[in-house]
Amino acid sequence: MHRLAAAMLVLLCCCCLFLATQQQQQLQPAAGGNRASPSCIPHERDALLAFKHGVTSDPGGVLSSWRRDGRHDEQDCCRWRGVRCSNRTGHVHELRLGGGGPFRPDLAGQISPSLLALDHLEHLDLSGNDLAGPTGRLPEFLGSLKNLKYVDLFGIPFYGGVPPQLGNLSRLQYLDLSNSYWLGSMNSTDLSWLLSCKRKPVAVTPEPYKEELDASGNSFHHPMVTSWFWNITSLRFLYLSSTSMYGQFPDALGDMTSLQVLDLSDIYYDYDYQDDDKNMRSMTMDLKNLCNLEVLNLKSTHLYGDVAELFRNLPRCSPNKLQELDLGWNHLTGMLPRWIGQFMSLVVLNLGWNNLTGHVPYEIGKFSNLTHLNLKRNKLDGTITEEHFASARSLQYIDLSYNALKIEISSDWQPPSTLEYVSFASCQMGPLFPGWLQWNVNITHLDISSAGIADRIPQWFSDAFSNVWFMNISNNQLNGTLPADMGSMSLLQLYLSSNKLTGQIPTLPPNLSYLDLSNNFLSGLTGHSATRFANLRELSLFSNRLTGHIPESFCKYQQLFVLDLSNNFLEGEPPLCLTEYMEVVALSNNSLSGKFPSFLQNLTNVEYLDLSWNKFSGRLPMWIGSLTSLRVIRLSHNKFFGSIPMNITNLACLQYMDLNNNKISGSLPIYLSNLKFMANTSMVGCFQALAILDSRLNSLSTVWKGQELNYGSVKRIEDTSMTSIDLSSNDLTGEIPEEIVVLDALVNLNLSRNHLTGVIPKGIGEMRSLQSLDLSRNMLSGKIPATLSNLTFLSYLELSYNDLTGRIPSGVQLDTLYAEYPSMYIGNIGLCGHPLQNNCSSERHAPKQGGLGRTEEGYGIPFFYLGLGCGFVVGTWIAFGVLLFKRNWRIACFRLSDKLYDKVYVLVATWARARQTQTD
């Protein structure tokens, strides 16, 4: 009986268990036959679909799974990408839609207010997307999602203030509104809303429960903000990099004893932002009690004062925990104290870009944990020896460049550490090549430029530096040939310019992107070396001894955007297949010939074009106006003829135009107002590649103040002081269009040595930026406009040898110019008044003029003197005729002939003026 009762009880329990299991399975939603949580709430699904509707761009299909139609499981928003629901209630708890940043945003559009329906939302991550919407403001309605604990809107280009409604988020533990991509700037004048947050203020690490504050890249202008930041004494991590704030470094920093990381780099106090001297501040706060401080970053904070005093304020608690100290880009002075060795735990020490003086103390060599040492661009002197690195077993990065240091290290010395980044630029290392570097086979970055090395490249060069990807040994006196085995190296950037290297260019590493061998004595490229560079972006070989034709293999450089072959002995026509991505083409001072290169028509990105001092001929093509990115065009000293294409005025970014010494004829283009850069009306989009090119590119020069002057590197043309038009020494006719006066950004205008007629534009005084104006040796007539005296920046004026008449305008500026250039009016017999000696009282009796020295009675010039002068010029040309075949004498001969011509002209004009006086 008992056994039967027990069996019945067991059977009953099994039945109950079975029924309970069946009931639980019936309560679960069907999702592929098995689901552990309920499906999403319908009105929350509608809210998410409304959010999707506010997204205008989704190139990666992030929200492609967000659909209302389809199978039942596709309608379940808890299964959508980036959506996470509660396993118990089905409410949306998390929305994780972080994107790839401003250059690769996953989503674009706006944040829809429909998110308010997600009243159980705790985690919101929309970082790295372009969701600022049409207003660009941070949505106020986010403050109504009171369950939010985690909000990440990093990188979204919001601007304006932070809405105080965010203070309603009483459960907030993590908030990131930073914008390190510089697409926008939050400008918070009041952070009182943060004080209403009952829990930890803000945190911006993947671990949201640390006591950490990151407000980098924002602007705070209210006084209470400063005091609020510095009074959160529980903080362990404080990041205020690139922040604009009110006030000074407070003394209260010394009370934040829990701090482990303090990053104030690039912080900017805007109380006196227009005066950098007043914006500088000394490091007066006492940080000695910050015994937990591991990282102190004060880079670029306008600190000034004695560096030793600053070190006295740093924590020296036992054990010393300070590992990273960055004081670079400041105004610190004085000598490094020898007791710097007390900071034995330092791993990173950056004192670069200051004004430190004296010797580098040997105590730096005692930092056994130091991996990164930067003393770049100070005023340090003395000698660096092996003792400075005796105990530096961990050193990987060293930069002592641009100091007056002498590196005296034995070639046999083997460093105790394995260096990876080495920069001794402008330090004295020579004359021998520093042999001790051969033991650092892990070097990836090597800069020993301007180091006084006068030696051959050693045999071990290619093997020892096989891992180097950046190498700069320019501005030395390396001689001999390049190693034949460089093809196996890993180089990506190689700079060997301004040395004395000879021979042919051997096979070089195939992955090179930047190659600069300019200013050497190299004679050519081997056939193999000219075909391997599939990734080459910049090639600078100017000022060598390259001969022959430009190789057709250059057409294979599909990534090339800078090509500079100037100042060589190249000849023939350039290849017609150069890459369409080219932005800089510099082929000047060779013997290249043919018509205007047709391959240029495809270079829609070209910004710098230099074909000067060659043998090009023919007409300028009409399609030149389609090169709308052009900022510099130099075609001088060629044989181009025909008129200037009218559509050249389509070049809105054009800043520098030099066509002098050709055979250009016709009139000046009328629509000069279309040259918007020169008219100072539109420069948007005109600062691109040229703004980042460095000084390795060939020099600019122009005829300025009567001489051909050198402007340095291409990089400098981003400065508007280079705005120039030079059309001198051509066959231009007609009048100077009045529209030229709209070019008020023009600094240099040279129209000399043409056949221009008519009057000088009356509004020329509106060209306020003009510093040099040369209209000499034309057939201009009429009076000199009185507005010319308005050009207060004018430092050179040349109006000689025209048919100008009347009184010379008065003005202090013109008088000063005449004192410096007394020949500026010569050859204009009809001019009178101060500063000339011709009295304008007889102006009404002045005879009419034609050409030089002409009167109504005829030419009246003794042909004997004219023939004598011409014979003198011809004889001089014969004497120098042989020299004309040498390229280096061209400019000298041109200048000499001009001076001789001027002297003969002065002689004849003086006689004519004396004859005219006698006649009157």
From TrEMBL:
This protein's name: Leucine-rich repeat-containing N-terminal plant-type domain-containing protein
Predominant subcellular localization, coarse grouping: membrane
GO biological process: brassinosteroid mediated signaling pathway
SUPFAM superfamilies: L domain-like (SSF52058)
Keyword Iron attached: no
InterPro entries: Leu-rich_rpt, Leu-rich_rpt_typical-subtyp, LRR_dom_sf, LRR_N_plant-typ, LRR_R13L4/SHOC2-like, RLP23-like
Signal peptide, first to last residue: 1-20
PANTHER family with a match to the protein in the record: LEUCINE-RICH REPEAT-CONTAINING N-TERMINAL PLANT-TYPE DOMAIN-CONTAINING PROTEIN, LRR RECEPTOR-LIKE KINASE
Family named by the database record: Belongs to the RLP family.
Membrane topology recorded in Swiss-Prot or TrEMBL: Single-pass type I membrane protein
Domain Leucine-rich repeat-containing N-terminal plant-type: 42-86
Keyword terms, alphabetized: Brassinosteroid signaling pathway, Cell membrane, Glycoprotein, Leucine-rich repeat, Membrane, Repeat, Signal, Transmembrane, Transmembrane helix
Keyword Transport attached: no
